Amino acid sequence: MPLNFKDISDAYDAGQWRVASWRKVPTQTTGSGIWFDLSMSPGNPIPNYYAAAPQIAIALKRSTDVGLDHGQNVNALGMKKYLRTFMAQAVTATAVPLPMIIADYLMFYPFVDMSLVEVVPMTTEIALPRYPTGAGVRILPVLVASQVGGAQFRIYYTNSAGVAGRVTPIVTCNTQVVNGTIVTSTPQTAGSTGPFMPLQDDDKGVQLIESVEFITGDVGLLALVLVKPLAAMHIYDITAPVEKDYLIQHNLMPEIKDDAYLNMICMPSGTLAAAPINGLIETCWTTN
Amino acid sequence: MGGFTSQDNLIQNITTNGKFWRLDWNKLFNPTTAAVGGEWHTLFRGGGNPPADAIFDAGTNLQFQSVFDVTTSAGAMQHGGNVGANGDDFKVILNASGATVGATTVPGVLMLVDVLGWHRVTTVTTATAQSTVTSNTFTASSSSGLLLTYANDWSNYQKVRFTTTTTLPAGLSLNTDYWLVRVSSTTARVATSYANALAGTVVAYTDGGTGTHTLTCRLPRYGDGAGVQTFFFNPAATAMGAATPNLLLGYTNAAGTASRATPTSPASPIGKTAGSNSLILHSGATAAGKYGPFTPQQAGDTGVRLIQTIQNSVSYVSGTYAVAYVKPLITIPLTTIGVAGEREFLSQLPSQPRVYDGAALYWIYYSSTTTPANVSFVGHVDFGWS
Predict the structure, then answer these.
(1) Structure confidence by residue, pLDDT tens digits, A82-139
(2) Is A18 within 8 Å of chain B by CB?
(3) Ordered alpha helix ranges (H), chain B
(4) Which residues 6+ apart lie within 8 Å of A11 measured at CB?
(5) N or C: chain B end with fewer CB closer than 10 Å?
(6) Range B83-93 average pLDDT
(7) Would you give the distance in Å from CA A208 to the centre of its chain?
(8) Number of domains in chain A
(9) End-to-end Cα separation, chain B, in angstroms
């Protein structure tokens, strides 16, 4: 973090900030209380479909995959960039209340086959592009081809301390079938967990995924995405935007790494189909 | 002068001392075409109070033109006149609001910007980088003071700096800002401050100097370009032609480094085909290359001081566009029809953005849905100063 408010003020006077708009219009019929990956929806930034060679880790970057416009790289100047404010609004009744999380999407393992009831190895030939130890990194299991629902699986991974062979608890998938569904979240299914896979006791993050084991299978395909959650907010209703000033309200501005691919997940109260969600992202950067 | 030293100081100044101004505004959206969700539009050409501009689609191709609140036919909002003796002081924004009762107009975001200047581009079928006009050589003579004669028609009160191959005319110095007091399309006198320029107090003639002299434009405010952003927009009543060119700039950044370029990664800004009246051409709902509202800058840059080249990478077929220099000041989200978005900049969003003397204040609007042509926006802005 910068040292004090004056650093921030000076940064703004020096032009070290950027504001940009974003707008997502999901086509998917999402479910109430089920987390959804907005990166897969049309709009600006362009959608991301997690399409690459199956089960081989591939990195996500602003420079190649777009994501939210947080400005250019600054680390080479001896500076760090921060998320200063974020605004979001939606006027579709079924969308709200709408908790949202902004995350740095680091890399993903494409097309994990949910029908293989065995331990399926993942291939990792690259390091995490940011947060290289994996500290704070979470696993986001995103549906990319329709499931029926109810499958159970666990993931073997190397944690942020570099210890291999760690394993998640077994989780149960929800029954939501649209692409972009985060399969581990649901308000109804026992054994589901929320947007992120739970980790083995005392683990602080994930460096890489070693393998995936479906205990009970299903049709469908997953992308296993390693993300670093950065910030959260909540659109309460359709008559007002949510505006977060992470300096004033939270006293903690999340750092945004160079070339970070930023996008959002959310948990609607009903369908997001054809529900525009729009807002602004403001970043600033300083030498501290 | 300018800001406040304490809350007591603020209250004293805006009450007892009367250093307070309320600006009420009422603007219409662009008069010809509805916006598509995800687009940014200027409200420059919309009617209302202040009225539609008549300047951004005028002037010489590629030439830099400055804009002030007093610029004739600019349609900038009147924020209460200058507060500094030299015309270089500032007020701060205390409160602001915006609202609309237009069906399907919300949600959206109003952004208040200080428009510093622009380049009008009429040669839109040229697909190569085109050099802007930001300087002229001049000769000096005597006519009720030092009179400069040059080729291009520079804006009244254009801020400039002078260079020479030998010796500048007496009264002019290197690396110093001056303001032109326009006499004709090819002549101007010179003032040593913006306030002097407004008052007609000009530099006296002593001699014409020796050698070849050059004037180079400066931004009227934020002269070094810190925090200055740019966007391409359609300032004309007619739509652009059918094309989707990359929209690229070559510029000097706020640090004074020339030959900076609009980045092409992750994608170059792309203009909309048949982009309508008032549209910020590279904004839009989807597809790569949509940036709203500002063009991206090269890594590490903190603003644009002056644009050297402008390029539409393929012919835009027809129409005209302009590239504006702006300083963003505040944003006001509008979520509900008939309900004002309100801002308070002391306690709610502690920032009190500065509005410098001469600032040309305009709104731009981010549509998240189909904003109809001519829909009405209303609101106010409160200013204070010490």
Answers:
(1) 999 999 999 888 999 999 999 999 999 999 999 999 999 999 999 999 999 999 999 9
(2) yes
(3) 7-11, 194-199
(4) A2, A17, A284, A285, A286
(5) N
(6) 91
(7) 16
(8) 1
(9) 5
**Single-letter amino acid, residue B383:** F
DSSP B297: -
From chain A, the residues in CB contact with B368 under 8 A are 23, 89, 91, 276, 278
Q: Residues of chain B with pLDDT > 90: what percent?
A: 89
Give the residue extent of every domain in chain B: 7-131+223-384, 135-217
Q: Which tokens go with B40?
A: 């940014």
Backbone angles phi, psi at B113, to 5 degrees: -130, 150
Query: Between chains, do A15 and B254 touch, taking CB under 8 Å as contact?
Result: yes
Tokens of B141: 């003579």
CB B32 within 8 A of CB B240: no
A26 to A29, B5, B277: CA distances (angstroms): 8, 48, 29
Q: What is the ipTM of this complex?
A: 0.90
Measure the CA–CA gap between B89 and B384, rounded to whole angstroms: 12
The phi, psi pair for A144, rounded to 5°, reads -120, -5
Q: Which residue of A has its CA nearest to B287?
A: A46
- Mean pLDDT value across residues B344-367: 94
Q: How far is B335 from chain A (nearest CA, A)?
A: 5
pLDDT greater at residue B240 or residue A187: B240
pTM assigned to the model: 0.95
**For A246, nearest residue in chain B (alpha carbons):** B349
- Cis upstream peptide for A187 (omega within 30°): no
Angle formed at CA B245 by CA B244 and CA B250, multiple of 5 degrees: 155
Give the structural domain span for A159.
Answer: 5-286
